[in-house]
Amino acid sequence: MKIVQVHNIYQGKTGEEAVLNEEKLVMEENGHEVVQFIKDNSDLDSFSKLERIRMLLSLNASTKIADEFGQLLDTEKPDVCHVHNTFPIITPVVYEVCRSRKIPVVQTLHNYKMICTNSLLFQKGEVCELCINKSLYHSIQYKCYRGSYLATAAQAHVIQHHRNKGTWDNLIDKYICLTEFQKQKLVSGGLPEAKAVVKPNFLTQAGTNIEHGSFFLFVGRLNDSKGLQDLLQLFKHNKTSRFILIGKAEEPAIFKEFRNVDYLGEQERDVVLEHMRKCKAVLFPSKYYEGMPMVILEAFSHQKPVVARNTGAMSSMIEHEFNGLKYDHTQDFLKAVERLDKDEDLVESFGKNALKSYFEKYSKDKGYSNLLNIYSSVLSH
């Protein structure tokens, strides 16, 4: 089987690229061929003003991308197209190009973009579901996307245009949701339930040479939606534990006042995994629903418990008092970290259970079986 992966990389590293590469690796290891069609939003920095205007005018469907992608399909002749993200450079035109060549399309939904202009169901520091079952133009008044009326309008127009056109209902053969929680939210917002399946993300291998070190690890964007305020409260009240932070921060200077906090900025994945191998536990205080955080899977595969907010994907991935601890209030977050820092036996016990969760739900074998079943189902129709 030959699969073409389609993905538009955001500015700044995300877990979506990790998912893309894990799926490519596992399919190739099992004798399949994977071709990638990738665009990177960092390229926008080199766009001229005219090129930016042209891109904004073609957000619904780029003729340039249609020609380029069509040539790739004609050359490679894939059996299945697996789309991860199309915004903003690739555009949803790829679905039409595939349909014109009778190539079935699988779409992974890493977030809530189909029912929310900022894709997070989150605004002004809180979970937000105001636009579910409404026109996406409803979101413009809230400036949900990058705090801009114009940017929100542009994003809303793309989603609403293709909703009205029937793209989401008719040109995509199967939707992959990452958790049952996410599936139900998307279905309630109009996703065709008959086309939706739940397939967790996976990792191709578990960590080796594991150590239970002395520090807590955070990996991700350091902003309010990812729980930055909880982290800052933790650092202010906990002067004895050690914390290492990896990820992009809008104001990295805020961490300098904490002597027990090391901010490493953005790092390559091998550096992240080396810290994952050595840490005591992983912190995941995200305030929004998430899709399925690869950071949690990486923690589990490295026998590390996770302390996470009890919401969205985390509420089902983290089994309280088994493979980690969940919390509802910041004060409970502080207590959970203090508890793990004082109880090495508990850390080791939770870590063993975390690895068990990995093998039962998120391993390479499980991931390959799930992917193959989905691809086979769209090919049989």
From TrEMBL:
Protein name from the UniProt record: Glycosyl transferase
Domain Glycosyl transferase family: 212-356
CDD domains to which the protein is assigned, alphabetical: GT4_PimA-like (cd03801)
Keywords: Transferase
GO molecular function: transferase activity
Native species: Roseivirga thermotolerans
Domain Glycosyltransferase subfamily 4-like N-terminal, chain residue ranges per copy: 28-202
